[in-house]
Design goal:
Layout: H1 5-61, E1 64-70, E2 75-78, H2 80-86, H3 97-103, H4 106-122, E3 126-133, E4 139-150, E5 156-165, H5 167-185, E6 189-193, E7 199-202, H6 204-210, H7 214-217, H8 232-245, E8 247-255, E9 261-272, E10 278-287, H9 289-303, H10 313-330, E11 334-341, H11 344-351, H12 353-370, E12 376-381, E13 384-390, H13 395-410, E14 413-415, E15 418-420, E16 424-431, H14 438-454, E17 460-462, H15 467-486, E18 490-499, E19 505-516, E20 520-522, H16 528-534, H17 537-557, E21 564-569, H18 571-575, H19 579-589, E22 597-602, H20 603-608, H21 610-623, E23 626-632, H22 639-644, E24 649-652, H23 654-657, H24 666-679, E25 683-686, H25 692-700, E26 705-706, H26 717-740
Parallel strand pairs: 16-17, 19-21, 21-22, 22-23, 23-24, 24-25, 25-26
Antiparallel strand pairs: 1-2, 1-5, 3-4, 4-5, 6-7, 6-10, 8-9, 9-10, 11-13, 11-16, 12-13, 14-15, 18-19, 18-26, 19-20
The structure holds ligand C2E and magnesium ion (2 copies).
Ligand C2E binds next to strand 19, helix 17, strand 22 and strand 23.
């Protein structure tokens, strides 16, 4: 036992030492624990801060803000992101429900308020989408969620919620929808391929255009569409452009699933990723067959005559240039035929343009069929055609071809129920002899054609340098004809028609003359054709008719009472419907006997439209006038029509009378005509009787009447009266003498 406290202490000291150590140890442990706890706390705080930062970052990235509304105090606290979304400065304003509602688009405000209140009342979370209207007028789209917590007694304590700005997402989505819809509804076919140029997507227009379903082409190379017309070199060019410029466009030919080949206008663009690597190719294309067809049509229209489909003037010029260049190189001649239809204007003016058009189409077909495929047939306009012939050899070949054309074109036409006739006048010029340039050759072929016209039409003529003078003359006539009409430069000569039996003058044929101020007295052959073509025949013909009728009245008043007047009727007068009116007017004005008027209609004019001729002749016959078919034998009368024409006389053309006594077949035709006329109960007037032999021959064949230089040339009226008086008196005397003898 210890004696003293010290002893006691000293006895206790081992214990004390132990206690101290224990204390120190426990302090040490506590400190260590404290340090660890502190460290852990700091770490946790750091983690918390990091999480909060991350949460804020995430919220910022997600445009997600949060709020909390203390329903007891009415205080609304907003997260930073919410301030950003609402574009409110957190320093200047504190969030409140009112502030929140103020930012909501006025049109959505009630809806939002309602949703929140209902959620609180019904204790259900809410989710609503609405708009914000910001002070600068911009609009944001928000998805708002919220939930409310309640006290045990059920009273609401606080609401919490989020607001997410989905404006950009929505805009992106609607842009995507728009783009997808553009892809779907595009009129252009779109095909998207991957890096190895395999199809990954096609749109409905692609399906429509190519006929291939997506399943047919997905995973395939678009070259499967090719029609095989684009060469590998062309494709290489295309790919090079795509590689270098990221874009190419051009025309390629593809084949549809049904095998149809079509041209398409293709654009190919490249889509690269952020590293510049090609990710996709986008090809879009349209079918351009319609455009190509329209272009071809335009080209055809520019080079062809719309009515007949033949080459037009423009393309003839082109072809002529080429042909001339080749002919020069190969030292080969070329021939140019200028073809004009005789009296086409008359048909056109009298039967109407649609018949005229039909006739032109038919003529163009006959021309085309008459020459080789390689020859160029062109229509210059109106009734003018040109044929360009190469490899022609000798002129004999040309003449035979021209003859064939005259024959083919001259065959009757059946158009819209009309039997029509037209004939061609053809002028031929040869390169290089008749012209070394396009213009000269054309001009000279034209001159040759006019020569063919003056040679009685319905024939062909080779160019001769003298013809240019004739062409010039014709042009001058055309110009001065109008002036001549206005200045009374025309006059009539009268040629007697003799009765073969009595020898007396039975009639006079009125034949027009032009007293040209510079060129003297001109015969009708020089101007009637021009007058017909220009339409001036109408006033001229009316003047002739009226003057001849007045003269007949004068002749009869002068004692030639049994005399008739024969008047030549032009094609235009025949067709315009005025003739009966004109005749009736003159008959009444000069108190004439209608049968004293003989209307001479040339055979070719009568046959141009025989049905119409039948109608008109019947009408004239009903009026009582006498009707004669002039120049018989020169046209192509069909017997059946001849029988239907209400005629009184046939005038046998001079060209046959001329042949009487010669070895040709003129006599045969004269005999046949006289026989035919007798069968048809018509009287024959022989034209151009110049010799006694002709007269005797005709008389022996029973020809009733004759006219010709043997009796008298056409003479002015005064001489005609004297001639008739003398002739008729002489005949009276002769008859009396014969009777006495
Ligand atoms: P056409 O009606 O056959 O007239 C007869 C033509 O023969 C007249 O020529 C006349 O002078 C000519 N002739 C008469 N006898 C002989 C003869 O013995 N020998 C020769 N070589 N010729 C003879 P012209 O006067 O030059 O008239 C030519 C044509 O012009 C006429 O042929 C007629 O078709 C037309 N023509 C004349 N006057 C008129 C007219 O007023 N109106 C119309 N539309 N045509 C007319
Ligand atoms: Mg006549
Ligand atoms: Mg005649």
């Amino acid at each position: 036992m210890p004696d003293s406290p010290l002893d006691c202490l000293s006895s206790l000291s081992p214990w004390l030492v132990g206690l101290e150590t224990l204390l120190l140890l426990s302090i040490l442990v506590s400190w260590v624990v404290l340090v660890r706890w502190r460290r852990q706390t700091l770490r946790l705080q750091a983690e918390l801060a990091r999480d909060r930062r991350q949460l804020q970052e995430a919220k910022r990235l997600a445009c997600l803000g949060s709020w909390e509304l203390d329903l007891l105090t009415g205080r609304l606290s907003w997260s930073d992101e919410l301030y950003r979304i609402f574009e409110v400065d957190p320093a200047s304003q504190i969030g409140s429900y009112t502030l929140f509602l103020e930012r909501v688009h006025p049109e959505d405000r009630d809806k939002v308020d309602q949703a929140y209140r209902t959620s609180v009342d019904q204790r259900t979370p809410y989710r609503i989408e609405h708009r914000l209207l910001l002070p600068d007028g911009s609009i944001k789209l928000i998805i708002e969620t919220g939930e409310t917590f309640y006290a045990d007694d059920g009273s609401p304590l606080r609401s919490i919620g989020t607001a997410q700005d989905v404006t950009e997402t929505r805009q992106l989505a609607s842009r995507m929808i728009l783009m997808a819809s553009a892809f779907e509804h595009s009129g252009e076919a779109i095909v998207i391929t991957d890096t190895s140029n395999r199809v990954v997507m096609v749109n409905p227009a692609f399906v429509r255009l190519t006929g291939y379903e997506p399943a047919d082409v997905l995973g395939q190379n678009p070259s499967m569409l090719s029609a095989g017309r684009t060469t590998p070199a062309e494709y290489e060019c295309m790919w090079q452009a795509i590689r270098e410029h990221g874009f190419w466009q051009g025309e390629v030919w593809d084949r549809r699933k049904d095998g149809g080949v079509y041209p398409k206008w293709l654009s190919v663009s490249v889509i690269r990723d952020e590293n510049g690597e090609i990710r996709h190719h986008i090809g879009h294309f349209t079918d351009i067959s319609a455009e190509r067809a329209a272009e071809a049509r335009l080209h055809h229209m520019a080079h062809h005559d719309v009515l007949t489909g033949l080459c037009n003037r423009f393309s003839l010029q082109d072809r002529l240039d080429q042909a001339m260049a080749q002919a020069r190189r190969e030292h080969e001649p070329l021939a140019l035929m200028f073809i004009d239809l005789d009296r086409f204007k008359v048909i056109n003016d009298t039967l109407g343009h649609h018949i005229g058009d039909e006739l032109l189409i038919e003529v163009s077909q006959r021309l085309r069929q008459s020459v080789r495929e390689s020859d160029v047939v062109a229509r210059l306009g109106g009734d003018e055609f040109v044929i360009l012939l190469s490899g022609i050899g000798q002129t004999g070949v040309l003449a035979r071809l021209a003859e064939k054309l005259v024959q083919n074109v001259g065959e009757p036409y059946q158009l819209s129920g009309h039997a029509l006739y037209t004939t061609p006048s053809i002028g031929i010029a040869i390169f290089p002899t008749d012209g070394a340039t396009v213009d000269t050759l054309m001009k000279n072929a034209d001159a040759a054609m006019y020569h063919a016209k003056t040679e009685g039409r319905n024939n062909f003529q080779f160019f001769d340098s003298k013809m240019n003078d004739l062409a010039l003359e014709r042009l001058q006539i055309e110009q001065s004809l109008r002036h001549g009409l206005a200045h009374n430069e025309f006059l009539l000569h009268y040629q007697p028609i003799i009765d073969m039996v009595s020898g007396r003058v039975r009639a006079f044929e009125a034949l027009v003359r032009w007293q040209h101020p510079q060129r003297g007295l001109l015969a009708p052959g020089l101007f009637i054709g021009v007058a017909e073509e220009t339409g001036l025949i109408q006033p001229l013909g009316d003047w002739v008719f009226w003057t001849a009728c007045r003269q007949l009245a004068v002749f009869q008043a002068a004692g030639l009472d049994a005399i008739k007047m024969s008047i030549n009727i032009s094609a235009i007068q025949m067709r315009n419907g005025n003739l009966p009116i004109l005749a009736r007017g003159a008959i009444e004005a000069f108190t004439l006997n209608p049968s004293d008027l003989i209307f001479e209609i040339t055979e070719t004019v009568a046959m141009q439209n025989p049905e119409e001729t039948v109608r008109l002749l019947n009408q004239l016959r009903d009026m009582g006038v006498t009707l004669a078919l002039d120049d018989f034998g020169t046209g192509y009368s069909s017997l059946s029509y001849l029988r239907m024409f209400a005629l009184d006389h046939l005038k046998l053309d001079r060209s046959f009378v001329e042949e009487i006594g010669k070895a040709n077949d003129g006599e045969v035709i004269c005999d046949a005509t006289i026989g035919l006329a007798r069968n048809l109960r018509l009287k024959v007037i022989a034209e151009g009787v110049e010799t006694e032999a002709q007269l005797n021959y005709l008389q022996a064949r029973g020809c009733e009447m004759a006219q010709g230089y043997l009796f008298s040339r056409p003479v002015p009226a005064e001489q005609a009266v004297v001639f008739a008086r003398e002739r008729n008196n002489k005949q009276v005397v002769d008859t009396l003498t014969q009777q006495e003898a």
